[in-house]
Design brief:
CATH topology of the largest domain in chain B: Heat Shock Protein 90
Shape of chain A: globular
Structural class of chain A: mainly alpha
Oligomer: heterodimer
CATH superfamily of the largest domain in chain B: Histidine kinase-like ATPase, C-terminal domain
Radius of gyration of chain A: 19 Å
Order of helices and strands of chain A: HHHHHHHHHH
Number of strands of chain A: 0
Distance between the termini of chain A: 52 Å
Largest sheet of chain B: 5 strands, antiparallel
Radius of gyration of chain B: 47 Å
Largest sheet of chain A: none
Number of helices of chain A: 10
Helix content of chain A: over 70%
Strand order of the largest sheet of chain B: 2-1-5-4-3
Number of helices of chain B: 11
CATH architecture of the largest domain in chain B: 2-Layer Sandwich
Structural class of chain B: alpha+beta
Distance between the termini of chain B: 100 Å
Order of helices and strands of chain B: HHHHEEHEEEHHEHEEHEEHHEE
Strand content of chain A: under 5%
Number of domains of chain A: 2
Number of strands of chain B: 12
Largest interface: A-B, 30 and 41 residues
Shape of chain B: rod-shaped
């Protein structure tokens, strides 16, 4: 038994240890430079979106990879892939499929056992996947019903090119980066220091804050309140799924299902 | 059962929602109270988690009805009723779940304490009791592993590992006596929490209870584990005291049985002694009486008179020795030491005198072998004579006729060691340790005359002089009895 046979010294590493500060500062500088440039000269269409996607999601994903113990180059690769995908997406809906390169890169890292600390190693319990689908479908369905009834939002057809492009964006950037950082990195670290409830509150607060500052979120009160409500429930559910299964995959699945429902809304991006 | 209940609750929620929607009752529909039923059922069945999930599901289904009406009509009495219903459902779910969880935990704790007491009951060794306790605790505490360490005197009894490693959590708790919580041991996909609490008796740690769990181990549960540690410590202490008491009772029983056996043996020996002593006393008396009657009744030749007087003197001396032995034994049994009048005694002279005493009829078989320049001993001459007479008498009695008896003396430090050696049949090993006991006679020698007092008196006399006596014997090779007396400086 560990408590009887293994030596132990009190003390833990800082919560934010291994944060790639230099890389984040460099990304921030690029964003500031882009903003300054955009304020002085007109940039090509979608240029700021490319910078925003690469900087925003790239920073989240690079931080998560660094916390997992990957070399800084892994984060740089993720940022470059996101920038390339965002640039491709500006060319047309089919270009958004380039976002799928990012999960492939992450899967490649996971296959080499470099993302164990993010919960991306070993088998995924089927019951957890089923629970994730149920959770995402319940919240997404509820969102669709509530939004259509209370806000009068129309539902878009499922097979639309815009919806598929948005789904690719969620799979490669939005959901993947957020789940890797807020669940796989932040929640996982926090739950190994404090109680489940404390870790859940911390990760959920950070998760909700990340979406509240997202420029793509409609800024009306109804949408902000709705976002806080659903993202809180989604985050809490995903934290529980991560805690229960020890894997990040169910949380990603749950969030993908939920955001798929969100993309069906007329204002869902 | 649980799945059925969960399915029934989900169905009830769906039916109530559908009925409210179909009847167009709105937020104030009387059907809204139907949401309480599955929420309460889930809270009672699954505790806090059930209450939370039931509340979440009920509010998820009912809130759109209320919010839609608020969108349409604003805050009307109907919508306020709907909001109150939401609050009631949330409150009932949260409170019911919390109370159910609390009650279940409390019950589980009592059951665990009972289980602990049952596991530690019975007359099993501590190792087995700890092993059993560990097994039941793993099950009761839903733990990934449980370790127990108990100090039992100088040793540590450990369940869950071979030993307690230095620097481990358990070693720290044993040393300091306070609980330690490790949120994660850093192994595995899920956090593995460890809590180690001391087993305290009278404020002192007698052991450690360590629990590892791949699940939450919140503050309440840690406090409960602290309390469980106290219960286990008390139960272990009781078990240890009971075990000690049982051992003591068994030892006492064995001692009493042994003492009883010895008393019975002593009683038998005394009875045998009375018979032997009567015979031993009567024999010289008969001789004295017979010869004295002959001397009184007849006129005999002077040589014959001298011969008879010699025999009478020898028998009277034997009678005197028996009486002296009895008196000495009586003093020994009362805890008194023999009275000694110690003077310097030349050992060689004493040995020669004793040898001469026994040489009549066995002239050349008693050999005296003294080391040169032997110092005199500080002894009572009469006591030394009785010691030597007893030992030589035994050697002559238990040796084959004509075999050699050797009396030796030599210096041994500040003492002089005297040994009497014979070439008799020897003393059996089991009897060797008992030959100095009063009344004891080696069973195979019952046909030889003797009271069983001689060696007991000899030992008492030697020890009264500050000496020691010991005997060595080999089957069919003879016996060597050696005693030491202090030399005169």
């Amino acid at each position: 038994m560990w408590a009887l046979v293994r030596p132990w010294r009190p003390g833990t590493r800082p919560l934010l240890a291994d944060t790639p500060t230099r890389l984040l500062v460099a990304v921030a500088c690029v964003v500031v430079a882009a903003l300054v440039l955009a304020s002085r000269t007109p940039l090509p269409t979608g240029a700021m979106r490319v910078v925003g996607v690469a900087a925003g999601h790239g920073a989240l994903l690079a931080t998560a990879l660094a916390w997992a113990g990957c070399v800084p180059g892994s984060g740089v690769v993720a940022i470059v892939l996101l920038a390339a995908a965002a640039a491709a997406a500006t060319l047309g809906p089919a270009g958004a499929l380039a976002y799928l390169a990012v999960p492939l890169w992450v899967a490649w890292l996971a296959r080499r056992q470099r993302l164990v600390a993010l919960g991306l190693a070993g088998p995924v319990p089927r019951r957890a996947l089923l629970a994730a689908v149920v959770l995402g479908a319940f919240l997404g369905g509820h969102l669709l019903v509530s939004a259509s009834l209370t806000l009068g939002v129309h539902i878009r057809p499922v097979g639309g090119a815009g919806v598929l492009a948005a789904l690719a964006y969620d799979a490669g950037a939005n959901v993947l980066a957020a789940e890797c950082l807020f669940r796989g990195a932040l929640f996982n670290r926090a739950q190994r220091r404090w109680s489940f409830a404390t870790a859940l509150v911390l990760a959920t607060a950070a998760y909700v804050a990340r979406y509240l500052v997202d420029p793509l979120l409609p800024k009306s009160v109804e949408w902000v309140v709705g976002a806080v409500f659903y993202l809180t429930l989604l985050s809490a559910g995903n934290c529980w799924l991560f805690w229960w299964s020890g894997s990040l995959v169910p949380g990603v699945v749950s969030a993908l299902v939920f955001f798929a429902a969100y993309r069906l809304l007329g204002t869902g991006g | 059962m649980t799945r059925g209940l969960a399915a029934a609750a989900a169905l009830t929620l769906a039916v109530v929602t559908a009925l409210i929607a179909l009847t167009g009752g709105g937020p104030a529909s009387v059907l809204r109270h139907g949401f309480l039923l599955p929420v309460v059922a889930l809270a009672l069945a699954f505790g806090r988690l059930g209450g939370a999930l039931g509340t979440g599901a009920a509010l998820g289904l009912y809130a759109p009805v209320v919010l839609l009406e608020i969108e349409r009509s604003g805050l009307t009495p109907e919508t306020i009723e709907g909001l109150v219903t939401c609050a009631v459902v949330a409150g009932v779910g949260a409170l019911g779940g919390a109370l159910t969880t609390r009650a279940r935990r409390q019950r589980a704790r009592y059951e665990t304490i009972l289980t602990v007491q049952r596991a530690l009951a019975g007359a099993t060794p501590l190792e087995a009791a700890l092993g059993r306790l560990r097994t039941v605790l793993i099950e009761r505490l839903r733990a990934a592993d449980v370790g127990l360490v108990v100090r039992d005197g100088a040793r540590e009894v450990v369940a869950g590992a071979d030993r307690v490693a230095a620097g481990s959590v358990a070693a720290g708790v044993l040393a300091v006596g306070t609980s330690v919580f490790v949120p994660d041991v850093g192994e595995g996909r899920r956090p593995r929490r460890v809590f180690a609490t001391p087993l305290l008796v009278a404020g002192q740690p007698i052991g450690v209870l360590a629990v590892e769990r791949v699940a939450e181990l919140d503050r309440d549960e840690r406090a409960a584990l602290d309390a469980l540690g106290v219960h286990i410590a008390v139960a272990l202490e009781n078990a240890r005291l009971t075990s000690r008491q049982r051992r003591f009772a068994e030892e006492l029983e064995r001692s009493v049985a042994s003492a009883t056996r010895r008393l019975e043996e002593l009683d038998r020996a005394k009875s045998a002694f009375v018979a032997v002593a009567s015979h031993e006393l009567r024999t010289p008396l008969t001789a004295l009486q017979g010869f004295s009657e002959i001397l009184a009744a007849r006129s005999l030749a002077p040589e014959e008179v001298r011969r008879m007087a010699g025999i009478m003197r020898a028998e009277a001396a034997r009678l005197g020795r028996i009486v002296s032995d009895l008196l000495d034994l009586s003093r020994i049994e009362r805890g008194l030491e023999p009275t000694l009048h110690r003077v310097p005694v030349v050992v060689e002279a004493a040995l020669v005198a004793t040898a001469d005493l026994f040489r009549r009829g066995v002239a050349d078989t008693i050999v005296v072998d003294c080391a040169p320049a032997l110092p005199p001993v500080d002894a009572d001459p009469d006591a030394l004579e009785r010691i030597l007479t007893n030992l030589v008498s035994n050697a002559v009695k238990y040796s084959p006729p004509g075999s050699e008896v050797r009396l030796c003396a030599r210096r041994a430090g500040a003492m002089v060691e005297v040994a009497v050696l014979d070439r008799g049949a020897g003393i059996p090993g089991d009897a060797l340790a008992r030959i100095f006991e009063p009344y004891y006679r080696v069973p195979a020698t019952s046909t030889v005359r003797g009271t069983g007092l001689g060696l007991a008196v000899v030992k008492a006399l030697v020890e009264a002089h500050g000496g020691v006596i010991h005997v060595e014997s080999a089957r069919d090779a003879g016996t060597r009895v050696a005693f030491s007396l202090p030399a005169v400086p």
